[in-house]
Amino acid sequence: MANIEKQSQSSFQTALYALSLEREAAAPLHVQLADALRRMILTGIAPPGARVPASRALAAELSISRMTATTALDQLTAEGYLETRQGAGTYVASNLPHISPPSRAPAPGPEPDAPTAPLPFHPAIPDLAAFPHALWARHLERAWRRPEPALLALPDPAGYAALRDAIAAHLSAWRGLNVSAGQIIITSGATQAMALAARALLAPGDKVLMEDPGFAPMKAAMRDADLVPRPHAIDTDGFDIESAARDCPSARAVLVTPSRHYPLGITLPLPRRLALIDWAARNGAFIFEDDYDSEFRYVGQPLPALSALDGSHRTLYIGSFSKLLSPALRLGYLVVPVSLLPRFGPALSHHQGASLVPQPALANFMETGEFAAHLRKMRRLYAKRQKTLLNALAYHLPDHLTATPDPSGMHIVARPGPALTKPDTVVGQQAEQVGLTLRPLSRYFSKHPQQGFVLGYAGFDEPTLEAAVKKLAGILSA
Amino acid sequence: MANIEKQSQSSFQTALYALSLEREAAAPLHVQLADALRRMILTGIAPPGARVPASRALAAELSISRMTATTALDQLTAEGYLETRQGAGTYVASNLPHISPPSRAPAPGPEPDAPTAPLPFHPAIPDLAAFPHALWARHLERAWRRPEPALLALPDPAGYAALRDAIAAHLSAWRGLNVSAGQIIITSGATQAMALAARALLAPGDKVLMEDPGFAPMKAAMRDADLVPRPHAIDTDGFDIESAARDCPSARAVLVTPSRHYPLGITLPLPRRLALIDWAARNGAFIFEDDYDSEFRYVGQPLPALSALDGSHRTLYIGSFSKLLSPALRLGYLVVPVSLLPRFGPALSHHQGASLVPQPALANFMETGEFAAHLRKMRRLYAKRQKTLLNALAYHLPDHLTATPDPSGMHIVARPGPALTKPDTVVGQQAEQVGLTLRPLSRYFSKHPQQGFVLGYAGFDEPTLEAAVKKLAGILSA
């Protein structure tokens, strides 16, 4: 063709005749030839309109049968890469103008970032070094080496039955919650549990009360589920449904952290719990109870879950394993009151359940008691770490930060002392520059932000915590 | 109190004095006592208003120190379960009217359903019996026994780097796609990949063209992402963007299955592919390429992915491991053109990635070549099964169903022959009653449904397929 430069036509022919097809390869010769020719077209070596040698010439040059050559050319003609012109031979299709030659080397592009170890005081990170990895690996291996039939069946969107059994037993022992396995739906985390509950029980545009300050990812998940989050300021006793309902009488649900307010750590007193249950019953509304790290209680017994109190069965319990084992597990669950289960049918049919891979291993880990033993061990470890952090803060920053012992959890909240004048967000940025993850408390608020810091201690050993507090002291007293 | 029946007051006292606290237990005696008393209140044994024995009496009856008794009562008073009345002792709080006694036995509730084995002709189910479970279990064990630091770091929302590397290598070898690992985002499946792409690139209310018939879960995922799916009828060559764009000129994206139309199996010819790329470039629109089971090609070489053709870099490739390994893995991925990566920053920060647990194992499984060997083995197996199914249909149902060999995939589509007069949905229901999962083709259409059946064969061995066809013949000729 006139518009094909001679040079590119000839370099195409050179490349084509230089092909070495492998007679010993698994792929038949005609497949190898078609594949090579297709790549030449896609990479621009064979430009649109270029003439393809006749099958006879091709066969001779490549030492293949003419049938092999014809088969390859026919395949590419069928695919649209080549076109034949009556009496004029075969050409690279001329209607391929948009093909830009992709490079044969990997496309220039970013490589994945190196993953970062959590920096002190990242909250919500369990101590993964203390995790019994060998045990866990063995449970994984055992569960999948000769998987039982249920693991090869159609995955139940509600999750693996043995894990649901184990969670029911765990909730009874640790949270005073008597539920059956059939009420438990495994999810890929707490936010997915909340979204699933919302999809089953609420309508787009429904208003959901939540605590201010609160957990931002839950707010984002609500918006994703087309709900309207309505944060309401808590007081010293935590969330007050009566005051919140006065502000937003049309709310259809409330998301609360009654065991331990996030992030302030307040335990919701019984009268406020009862008022929540009463409000939900009177309004036909729902309570989403996010019980995010209640297992780590260092002083006294944890209050039973709000769900255990709720005789009217309008409370949905949300649990997660991300703080008990690892955020990377991506396993959480929702506990649904029996009377509400029928409303979950349609939502469950859409529910993209969690990966089945860790589920049988986690079920075994729980059934053997190893999980409870690990929790108890972590409880002791984290209690010591909290003490270390508090002591270090009192020693190095007595006038800059004020923090009191917290009976539970994986982080404490420190408030500014008289010597601290910089805004918490500024301190947070400075801390980032010296390798600390210091979350400003003000960021957890929707309105009327308070100053302070959320300091996670669970994931860091005592020398690390002490060194981090010294680093922080360097920033604050600069 | 007058309103507390004498009998319940006395049965409470009996229960309380019958308590046996364990001196050897890990929990201190006051914790055990508070816990027991709390349970009595929650279960209704200690009704609101009931009088609690004085700490002196309690200590004497239970053989504990008076300090132990006082500490327990103080804790429950602080929690709101008990209240003290000036000079009149301690009572179960009277403002607990909504507590209905939860039963101590597990709540009556449904047990999880027994999981069901896939029935013939369930489509999209790989042969899990042929899966190399022992190898896979060993990879899981090895990856987690002494996990490398990256597995214990903060999880990268884009997924585990080694898996992204392995997928890039797989795409280059199998799909002619040269991309870098940094362009790959691991997701919990194909629908999540589509939703992530939509969140990054589109706005709520944007119209997305899709093929009619098509894959219903993708349509549902679009609606969840606040997009407006616009199915457009395909013709014998598959999806025609020019005709679709005339019908819906404001479409901002298109979701297509160019390698193998779902469910009809049509391979989109090159001119139509180029028209798609041209349309996207001219309109600043996007192409979502769902490449759902292109690895199983029995005849000829697969066409390279549409993304490999797209010089203008507006095609996002969606892959999944659900048909290659198991739907229970819940692993898929999205390949993003380099120039679009910056737009994924905010969407990735919200992205709840897939479980990390299977990711290092899958990466090793791919790097060792075992994954490719498994795919090749499955390709041979599935090719034979397709042949068996076609032969059985031709033998047992020559006048009722017409099906032709399909060069790829895990299912075939059978069309009604002259002897079949019942609607496909009726036959589907009858088939369900005899233990077959026979998907009516009409159900895949939004408009102008065609009659037929989608028959999956990949997950069933040859005797099972033959028996299933005989069963189906029993229904159709009845």
Radius of gyration of chain A: 32 Å
Shape descriptor of chain A:
elongated
Measured between the Cα atoms of the first and last residue of chain A, the distance is 76 Å
Structural class of chain A: alpha/beta
| Count of individual domains of chain A | 3
CATH homologous superfamily of the largest domain in chain A?
Type I PLP-dependent aspartate aminotransferase-like (Major domain)
Unreliable spans of chain A: 100-105
Please count the beta strands of chain A (DSSP E, at least 2 residues each): 14
Describe the structure.
The structure is a homodimer of 478-residue chains. Chain A contains 17 helices and 14 strands. By secondary structure, chain A is α/β, with parallel strands linked by helices. Chain A has a seven-stranded mixed beta sheet with strand order 4-10-9-8-7-5-6, with helices on both faces. Chain A has a four-stranded antiparallel beta sheet with strand order 11-12-14-13. In chain A, helix 12 links the parallel strand 8 and strand 9 (315-320). Residues 100-105 of chain A have low confidence and may be disordered. Chains A and B meet through helix 2, helix 5, helix 6, helix 7 and helix 9 of A and helix 2, helix 5, helix 6, helix 7 and helix 9 of B.
